[in-house]
Design brief:
468 residues, 25% strand, globular, 13-stranded mixed β-sheet, alpha/beta, 15 helices, binds adenosine monophosphate, GMP Synthetase, Chain A, domain 3, Rossmann fold, 3-stranded parallel β-sheet
Length: 468
């Protein structure tokens, strides 16, 4: 039997295809039947244009229902979906196109889908095996060349089924979808949960406070990145009443601050469900739907995922093995070999630990580790202390070149305060080598679209701090 992911998703669309899939802000709807027809048209056009199994189809476009039709149509045609961040510049796009060599590059999905109609539709999906490539996802790659993670039909299906189960999705759900769809979070995590339950989505092109507040009134599940939640909390219109219809608020793609978790609970009575994932494996761990959700922990590995800490210490680099792990980096066999252990575990590059209950706690990226005077400093440990100090909204701790220590600990703090006093306060709680040697105050931390703080930019900016 074919393992084409499209067939699995479509088998769970509502039997009554007139039911809505997309609920749009102007009050109109697009049905599951229309989604299915759109995907069949896209697949028909791709086949007519000579796109065959394994051929890449790139998409860089504004978020729209038609973009989703393109995604599904690519799967249906047996081709490989390659989404590109809208923010990528011409030069960046050139790199991806040169590396992935797509046969088709779609930039205007509504026009492309409309034109596809005349090429005829593809009724039956092209057969695919579980190991066949379904999507190529370029990692956000803050250093070095961006790598294309190869995700198979089987990997995406396994993750989708596990999440659908873990988060208790039913056809009665309504998912608030305000995430971009060029990243695994909005593309696979959110869409697949909705499709597997055949439920509608409140479809927002992007996160805009007023639309999200209105959308929450008719949603049962929200998925977001931490900045979505801080923005909601900053909005006076976000009340317990607005949150009441939502059965679960899910968060990930970047660390959720314990202060945001606490403030959210105080405001709504609900605990945000934090989960952890990455382009190379989609979702890896999640806090429980039923059972305690703990601030700062990303919960337990999903069923089928083996997770261990490398290096023989309590805290170390997280290694994982499981059905959703990517197959390889596109055309980078050496890089692929470097990032898997001899017994087949993927070395995530995230540093963390497991507590006696088996919960996973992440303390940052391995490459963010600071070595100061020969001692390892985990930025997260310092950030947690600083974030509790008055005047601090959020902190990002980095290492800057230092002639005596190799690297000196620098805290970039969003907020205000007195540098010397704050360093003294940090010292009261941290070993001297961990406490920041300098604190710089900024209005905003640089973030990418998924809300991740771009420490590489901070390292560049403050590289000369100890030279002066
Ligand atoms: P990406 O491949 O762009 O999705 O980025 C994946 C990275 O985001 C992971 O390797 C983690 O470093 C980070 N990440 C994702 N979710 C979380 C989370 N809940 N807590 C901390 N870091 C996270």
């Amino acid at each position: 039997m074919s393992q084409n992911l499209y067939d699995l998703l479509a088998s769970r669309f509502p039997a009554d295809r007139s039911k809505p899939c997309f609920l749009l802000s102007d009050g109109s709807e697009i049905s599951y039947g229309a989604l299915e027809a759109g995907a069949a048209q896209v697949a028909g056009r791709l086949v007519a244009e000579g796109v065959g199994p394994g051929d890449r189809v790139a998409l860089q476009a504004e978020k729209s229902p038609e973009a989703v039709m393109v995604y599904l149509g690519v799967l249906k045609a047996g081709a490989v979906f390659l989404p590109l961040n809208n923010a990528y510049t011409r030069a960046e796009v050139d790199y991806f196109l040169g590396d992935a060599e797509p046969k088709v590059f779609v930039t205007d999905p509504p026009a492309w889908v409309a034109e596809a109609g005349s090429a005829g539709t593809l009724a039956v999906s092209v057969a695919r095996e579980a190991d066949d490539l379904a999507s190529l996802i370029y990692t956000s790659g803050t250093t070095g060349r961006s790598k294309g993670a190869m995700l198979s039909h089987g990997a995406l299906a396994a993750n989708a089924l596990a999440l659908h189960e873990a988060w208790g999705f039913t056809p009665d759900d309504v998912l608030l979808h305000a995430l971009p769809i060029f990243h695994v979070h909005g593309l696979f995590v959110a869409l697949h949960c909705a499709f597997l339950s055949g439920c509608p989505m409140v479809w927002l092109p992007k996160f805009a406070d007023a639309e999200v507040l209105a959308g929450l009134e008719r949603s049962t599940v929200m998925m977001g990145v931490p900045t979505f939640y801080t923005r909601l909390l900053a909005s006076p219109g976000f009340t317990r009443q607005v949150a009441d219809k939502v059965r679960v608020f899910i968060c990930g793609s970047a660390p959720l601050l314990p202060s945001t978790f606490a403030e959210f609970e105080a405001r709504t009575g609900q605990r945000i469900l934090e989960r952890y994932g990455m382009s190379e494996a989609v979702i890896i761990t999640t806090n429980p739907l039923a059972g305690e959700r703990i601030a700062g922990s990303v919960g337990y590995p999903l069923p089928g995922v083996e997770l261990r800490i490398g290096g023989g210490e309590d805290t170390g680099v997280i290694e994982i093995c499981g059905p959703s792990v990517f197959s390889a980096y596109w055309r980078m066999p050496e890089k692929t070999a470097e990032e898997f252990t001899a017994d087949g575990f993927f070395i995530t590059g995230d540093v963390g630990r497991r507590d006696p209950d088996g919960r996973v706690w992440i303390s940052g990226r391995a490459k963010d580790l600071i070595i100061s005077g020969g001692y390892n400093v985990y930025p997260k440990e310092v950030e947690l202390v600083l974030d509790e100090l008055p005047g601090v909204t959020e902190s990002a701790v980095i290492g800057a070149p230092h002639k005596d220590f190799g690297e000196g600990v620098v805290a970039v703090v969003m907020g205000q305060g007195d540098e010397a006093a704050m360093i003294a306060q940090a010292r009261a709680q941290l070993a001297a080598y961990k406490a920041p040697k300098r604190i710089v105050f900024v209005d905003e931390l640089p973030r990418n679209t998924m809300g991740k703080v771009q420490k590489n930019l901070l390292r560049q900016r403050f590289a000369g701090l100890f030279e002066a």
